[in-house]
Amino acid sequence: MNSETRRVVTTNDASGKAVVLLDGPAPNVSVRRETGLASTLLWVTDSTPPDISGNADAADREIAVPPPPEGSIFRIVEFFPEKELEGAVSNEEMLKEMGLADTGSVGAKPRHHGMHRTDSIDYAVIMSGEIDMLLDDSEVHLKAGDVVVQRGTNHAWANRGDEPCKIAFILIDAKGSAASKAP
């Protein structure tokens, strides 16, 4: 099952002194056993450059997978082993859950139910476990300590192992996708 993530958020007090605003388990967690993941939303920005004033918890909201226009999302996702999934989920159901439109996978049928694409640059840090990143016609095996810079490409994550895999994701809205720039 998913493990708690401690989140520490800083701010400046009225005198300009750096202080801790929030310190504790990140409260915005959703667990979806049928799709094989648990997602902890840590922070969201709605603009670039981001507004860092105020003391509101920017993760106290419901949001789909992509970042807001000109914004960013920071979340940790824990992928459960696929053999533990409670039921088959179609690509259409997965895209709907993620708040994404059909991304037009190359080929008639996506190679994995989790295939999707966002117009964002995604930084992914594998924190624990192992996972396979599936692309349209290839895949890469990743383990703790590996990083991925994903530039608007169609992909899915497949945990074919025996242990959960935890990944930290930072998604930043981008102009166009790498696919639209391909020769």
What's the main sheet like? 6 strands, antiparallel
Tell me which oligomeric state these chains represent. single chain
The percent range for strand residues is 35-45%
Q: Give the CATH architecture.
A: Sandwich
Terminal CA distance: 43 Å
Look at the structure and name the CATH superfamily: Jelly Rolls
Number of folding domains? 1
CATH class: Mainly Beta
Output the strand order for the largest sheet: 3-4-5-11-6-9
Continuous helix count: 1
Average predicted confidence as pLDDT: 86
Give a description of the structure.
- It is a single chain.
- By secondary structure, the chain is mainly beta.
- The protein has a single domain (30-181), classed as Jelly Rolls, CATH 2.60.120.10.
- 4% of the residues lie in helices and 39% in strands.
- The chain has one helix at residues 91-98; strands spanning 6-12, 18-25, 29-32, 37-45, 72-79, 120-128, 130-134, 139-143, 147-151, 156-158, 165-173.
- Strands 3-4-5-11-6-9 form a six-stranded antiparallel sheet, with no helix packed on it. Strands 8-7-10 form a three-stranded antiparallel sheet, with no helix packed on it. A two-stranded antiparallel sheet has the order 1-2.
- Mean pLDDT is 86; it is low at 179-183.
Put the structure in a nutshell:
With 183 residues, the chain is mainly β.
